[in-house]
Amino acid sequence: MSSGFSPAEYLKLIRESDVYGVAIESPLDEAPLLSSRLEASVFLKREDLQPVHSFKLRGAHAAMARLDPEVLAKGVVAASAGNHAQGVALSAQKMGCRAVIVVPATTPEVKRNAIENLGAELVTHGDTYHDAYQRAREIEQEESLTFIHPYDDPFVIAGQGTIGVELDSQLPPGPSIVFAAVGGGGLVSGLCLAIKQLRPGSKVFGVEPEDSPAMHDSIRAGERVVLEKPGLFADGVAVRQVGEETFRICQELLDGVIVVTNDAICAAVKDVYEEKRAILEPSGALPVAGLKQWAETGGRKDLPLVAVTGGANVSFDRLRHISERADLGEKTEAIFAVRIPERPGSFRQLCSVLGKRSVTEFNYRMDCQDEAVVFVGVRTRTEDESEGILHSLRSGLYPAYDLTHDELAKTHVRHMIGGMASVPNEKIYHFLFPERPGALGEFLDKLGGRWNISLFHYRNHGSDRGRVLAGFQIPNSTQAEFNSFLTDLGYEFTEESLNPSVGLFLSRPLGRGQ
Questions:
Q1: Is residue 280 classed as helix, strand or coil in its secondary structure?
Q2: 244 in Cβ contact with 224 (< 8 Å)
């Protein structure tokens, strides 16, 4: 849907948008720690302090406030991963109308509870926002409700654009550089329309996770692309396709899209906590990760840098994953596998090679009589330092391997060290499936009992998807049948039998060390 509104017409809509019936003018806070580290003037636009802890209520209320009373009286329906839903629910509560909210099964419990506490009717459908969206449109027709789009609606875009008007009054005079999360594109569209006209010379950058780069890929392709399986860690921006109107605006006005890793997002959550003692959800910290990447990779620092902190609706159990990965995202921890001789004193000798560096993790178990492999985490100050540590280890005649960027090592292997095994006909596979209540049981049901499971590791720690590392005994005569089983299973998978961290810590070739 394309409105055809010009930037000037949009600015008029933004100025007329009714958002303060539910929203506050959020503060613009200085970020002294980030400013000092990045040698720039960094500010946080604290949308996490809104009544529903997200900017989304602005657009929802702006759109609903324009509905005719008789239309509003019939009620509204929305699809959301959580934050837009809370905005619609709060607005409906204020306006005294019915609200039906459809969320995917992967929506964090903290967001579900908030939606229901605001009096909305909660419907759970599918595993992705796209699934929930389709069901919401069906309910729209079945019950004659009005659908409130989370981003692809001119009035929603205008409501989000009120953040830009506030920034214009809060920032020092002159241009600035603004960073905002991109899901469907409503927020960055509104910011572009406001900031670019009110503060000429300013730039606006969208920020996306590397596993959900819908706007980045669409702008590069020159048309809206559809992501097959957007990542769910930053669930607030997990959309398969950006909006038609938001894409039109971003193609014309957005200065670029910065793509960051999930580890970098975890590091940004930690940064904001250290600055403000506030805990953001992954999509809320996304702009901070983008701002840091911009500043650290040569972006100009002579203008104010503003990150719109979008949401603070994080599930408590997800904090385990965020805390575990924050130092890796900040590049202040590196992890290694090191082979050492299995003899008295070799452990101490390895520590002497590491010197006075702070060791964050040391995992070890005797494997055979001649050689041991240890898993070592070391505190670092810069990304380049890990190369120096690797050189020091190898100079000390230790075969060493940098596992800092080995996802399997970080997710599974570091938690499984305790002895290797020689298993006939063993193949190791890694599986991904949507994380939701009962997901592991469904996964095990699909596995069945046709092949012996020789290794199994699953951690439910609030990550984006269920992750399982599993070993199977697969005789050559049944490999073709097993391949068919994998295809029919319907989950993402990769064979990891030859992954270096598996070979170093979990699976020993038959005969070795016997």
A1: coil
A2: yes
On whether the CB atoms of residues 194 and 161 are closer than 8 A, the answer is yes
Q: What is the three-class DSSP state of 333?
A: strand
Starting at the edge strand found earlier in the chain, the sheet holding 257-260 runs 28-30, 42-45, 305-308, 177-181, 203-209, 257-260
In the beta sheet, which residues pair with residue 362?
376
pLDDT in the model for residue 512: 47
- C-alpha 402/C-alpha 306 separation (Å) is 35
What does the buried/exposed string (b/e) look like for 2-19 if buried means 16 or more CB atoms within 10 Å of the residue's CB?
Answer: ebebeeeebbebbeebbb
Beta strand ranges found along 419-513 (DSSP E): 426-434, 453-458, 465-473, 492-495
- Residue 69 makes CB contacts below 8 A (sequence gap 6+) with none
What's the rounded Cα separation, in Å, for the pair 88 and 90? 6
Distance (Å, whole) CA 87 – CA 110? 14
The b/e string for 351-375 (b: 16+ C-beta within 10 A; e otherwise) is eebbeebeeeeebbeebeeebbbbb
Which of 106-115, 170-179, 259-268 has the least mean pLDDT? 106-115
Q: What is the mean pLDDT of residues 69-87?
A: 90
Beta-carbon count within 10 A of 241 CB: 18
Write the CB contacts of 163 (distance below 8 Å, at least 6 apart in sequence).
26, 45, 47, 55, 58, 187, 190, 191, 194, 308
pLDDT band at 514; cut points 50, 70, 90: very low
Assign 3-class secondary structure to 386-425: HHHHHHHHHHCCCCEEECCCCHHHHHCHHHCCCCCECCCC
Intra-chain end-to-end CA distance of the chain, in Å? 67
pLDDT, tens digit, 9 for 90 and up, residues 143-157 = 999 999 999 999 999
Whether the pLDDT of residue 513 is over 50: the answer is no
Instruction: Name which residue leads in pLDDT, 505 or 186.
Output: 186
> How confident is the model over 237-255, as a mean pLDDT?
95
CA distances from 128 to 229, 293, 346, 425 (A): 9, 28, 51, 37
Question: What is the enclosing helix (H) or strand (E) of 161?
Answer: helix 154-170
For 394-445, the pLDDT digits (tens) are 887 788 999 988 888 888 888 887 767 778 888 999 988 776 666 666 777 7
